[in-house]
Amino acid sequence: MSLYRFQKSFADPTLSERLFTLLETVFPGLDLSNLAKSTRAMGAPWETASTPFIRFDDDIAIAHVGVLEIPLQIMGESVTVGGIHAVATHPEYRRRGYYREIMREVLDYCDRRYETLVLTTSQPELYEPFGFRVVEEHKFIKQCDAKGNGDRLQLLNLSDSNDVKLLHRLLKTRIPVSNVVGVLPQQEKALFCVNEATRPLYYAEDLNVIICMEIEDTQLKLFDVVGTNIPTLDALLAQIPQLIKEIIVYFSPDRLNSTFQAIPHVLDEALLMVRGKFAAEGDLFMLPRSARC
User: Fold this and answer.
1) Is Lipid biosynthesis among the key words of this record (predicted)?
2) Residue 194's domain is classified under what CATH number?
3) CA-to-CA distance for 282 and 138, rounded, in angstroms?
4) What are the pLDDT digits (tens) for 221-267?
5) pLDDT at residue 277 above 90?
6) What's the CATH number where 119 sits?
7) Could you say which DSSP state residue 98 is in?
8) Which domain holds residue 245?
9) Mean pLDDT of the chain
10) CA-to-CA dists, residue 217 to 21, 81, 225, angstroms
């Protein structure tokens, strides 16, 4: 039996539906139920990755705080941090102290397990009373004039079982994209799939890496590289047939063997907040998009 009155278990087959009803009320338009269904189909069920803390009114979920484990490398050291996510209170039940009540329980649960907690939010004032602080992040920009030789990238189709197996293999065996802040091999793959599987994922067979990237005209935006090695920037650019004149990297590029200009940046209008120890604080980094919660 749980020590915590709000901690629930997805062993209850009705819990997911009731929780997603709450989340879709609070975050309309995100279609979280279908997103969760997609991750299950990819063998990365959200229910195995998140520990839910939920308050109910009869059978209705009225407030929720979720906890994830995120394996990171921070300043060269392996760290498992707790990720706070999907914080939600039903609009009809706000200003009654339910959020504070659940958060106190969540923090007691987390303090027994993690030295560090992270979350991303556009409302830092909700978390500052609980000991979270904003940590500055950076994007990294480089001008160039590069064009690869031919079309050597494969756009993954995550409805294809072979492509899903490839993704699982590389997530399980990946090395961190950065020694400053990077993601370690992931046994639980749901967070990556929620953040990245609805976006283009490219496989570079020559390099045996999956690249999370977007190209707009001649601008390359690089969000993550998943593989057993991290290629140099030149090796990555050689895979891209389009002309690239500007590169923006949304993680510390210390392994790309190239120089960049670091600029303070808030990714997707969501500030990174930390509670507890965070060795990269004050350094130049960004928590990769694939590991944000």
Assistant:
1) no
2) 3.40.630
3) 11
4) 999 999 999 999 999 999 998 999 999 999 999 999 999 999 999 99
5) yes
6) 3.40.630.30
7) H
8) 139-264
9) 94
10) 39, 37, 21
- Phi, psi at residue 122, to the nearest 5°? -95, 0
Rounded Cα distance between 31 and 12, Å, is 22
User: For 176-204, what is the mean pLDDT?
Assistant: 93
pLDDT for 31 equals 75
Please check whether residues 246 and 167 belong to one and the same domain. yes
Give the pair of three-digit tokens for residue 175: 């090395």
**Contact by Cβ (8 Å): 227, 210:** yes
Residue 282, burial from CB neighbour count under 10 angstroms (0-12, 13-18, 19+)? exposed
Q: How many structural domains comprise the chain?
A: 2
Same domain for 158 and 250: yes
- 255 and 156 within one domain: yes
Give the number of residues written for the chain: 293
Query: Is the full-model pTM beyond 0.85?
Result: yes
263: helix, coil or strand? strand
The closest of 18, 284, 32 to 140, measured between CA atoms, is: 284
Q: Are 103 and 132 in contact (CB under 8 A)?
A: no
Domain assignment present for 8:
no
Residue 188 within any structural domain of the chain:
yes
CA distances (Å), origin 221, targets 124, 130, 233, 255: 26, 34, 12, 16
Q: Tell me the mean pLDDT in the region 37-54.
A: 89
* 131/149 same-domain check: no
Query: How confident is the model over 100-136, as pLDDT tens digits?
Result: 999 999 999 999 999 999 999 999 999 999 999 999 9
Mean pLDDT over 175-186 rounds to: 95
Region 264-293 average pLDDT: 97
Strand intervals (E) in the chain: 50-57, 60-74, 77-89, 116-121, 133-134, 138-147, 153-155, 181-183, 201-204, 209-216, 219-227, 243-249, 261-264, 271-276
Cα–Cα distance list, 151 to 85, 156, 202, 222, 229 (Å)? 38, 14, 11, 18, 21
Assess if residue 210 is contained within a domain.
yes
